[in-house]
Design brief:
There is one protein chain. This protein is of the alpha/beta class. The protein has a single domain (2-270, 280-287), classed as P-loop containing nucleotide triphosphate hydrolases (Rossmann fold, 3-Layer(aba) Sandwich), CATH 3.40.50. The chain has 13 helices and eight strands. Strand 3 (74-75) and strand 4 (80-83) form a beta hairpin. The longest helix is centred in the C-terminal third of the chain and has 25 residues, at 246-270. The radius of gyration is 18 Å and the shape is globular. The two termini are 35 Å apart. Bound molecules: adenosine-5'-triphosphate (ATP) and magnesium ion.
Length: 298
């Protein structure tokens, strides 16, 4: 089971849109998926038509009231489940402040679901507080949704510092799987520059023992697509709302990329280590991508 934290402390970069629609796309591709809404804003729950005011069991039940994973989880479809957020989650960070082991509460609860899902997606809030730390402590991987923005790389240092701290102190298996560009406009010079900077950054850390040394810049760019912004207000994913839109195509492509990436890594872990290979994974083929390869127009 892969537990993926969708994380970026910057607000409005597409964490929730990616959690909701990558989750649905993974399920469409035959994977068993559970999403956990880690954000007191509850946007992921609302995206799936669940009102946080009327939720009885939620992430709060699991973290603060010591409820089980099964209790807090709702099955939405054959292959999709969700642990919703609720309004009381906003108090959880304060309520848990003196609880011993407060950073690993989620990890301990999730362990029970190990055989039930192929993927658990954690939609993090836009902060680096206790809820995000719980997500990082429980995760096997981090995916960073990011806008190709003027200040896109600002703040990434702080994010990676947090990842490294959690990996050193709580969760040594934690890896940054990659960065996915959201709300992407391929035509702009700015986005070309941001892509180049990100590729450079990734190349520089390849072969080190940092948790992001084998991170990739996902080839799939999630294009700006109004349908993706509209679908949550109908309590629908893009696949229910507009299954042939660019948004649906992009999240399908991202799901394929994610599945292939982890399949390759799974095989690599199982394969016997080659005798005289230099250490470190080659990331070049992953990032040698052309931002313009995707079809345009909606
Ligand atoms: N590819 C896209 N095209 C158009 N609009 C998008 C796209 N992705 C996200 N949006 C819209 O941008 C806004 C922010 O997206 P989203 O809520 O997913 O970001 P977030 O990182 O989860 O935000 P927060 O930090 O508040 O949790 C939302 O209104 C969403 O509908
Ligand atoms: Mg969000």
């Amino acid at each position: 089971m892969r537990v993926i934290a969708l994380m970026n402390q910057k607000g409005g970069v597409g964490k929730t849109t990616t959690s909701a629609n990558l989750g649905a796309a993974l399920a469409e591709a035959g994977q068993r998926v559970c999403m956990i809404d880690m954000d007191p804003q509850a946007h992921l729950s609302i995206n799936y038509g669940i009102e946080p005011e009327s939720v009885e069991k939620s992430l709060y039940t699991m973290l603060v009231e010591e409820g089980s994973f099964l209790e807090a989880m709702q099955r939405l479809d054959k292959r999709i489940a969700l642990v919703p957020s609720s309004i009381d989650l906003v108090a959880a960070e304060v309520e848990l402040v003196n609880v011993p082991g407060r950073e690993t509460l989620l990890r301990n609860r999730i362990a029970a679901a190990d055989h039930d899902f192929d993927y658990i997606l954690l939609d993090c809030p836009p902060s680096l507080g206790l809820l995000t730390v719980n997500a990082l402590a429980a995760a096997t991987d981090v995916i960073i949704p990011m806008q190709a923005h003027f200040l896109a790389l600002q703040g990434v240092g702080k994010l990676l510092e947090t990842v490294q701290l959690v990996s050193q102190q709580i969760n040594p298996q934690l890896r940054v799987a990659g960065i996915v560009l959201t709300m992407f406009d391929a035509q702009t010079r700015l986005s070309t520059e941001v892509v180049r900077d990100l590729q450079q950054f990734i190349e520089q850390t390849a072969g080190t023992n940092l948790p992001w040394s084998d991170a990739v810049l996902f080839k799939t760019r999630i294009r700006r697509n109004i349908k993706l912004a509209e679908s949550p207000s109908f309590g629908q994913t893009i696949f229910q709302y507009e299954p042939s839109s660019n948004g649906a195509q992009d999240y399908r492509a991202l799901a394929r990329e994610v599945i292939n990436l982890f399949r390759r890594r799974g095989e690599k872990q199982q394969a016997p280590a080659p005798a005289a290979e230099p250490s470190g994974e080659t990331v070049a083929p992953e990032i040698a991508s052309d931002p313009d390869v995707q079809p345009q127009g909606d």
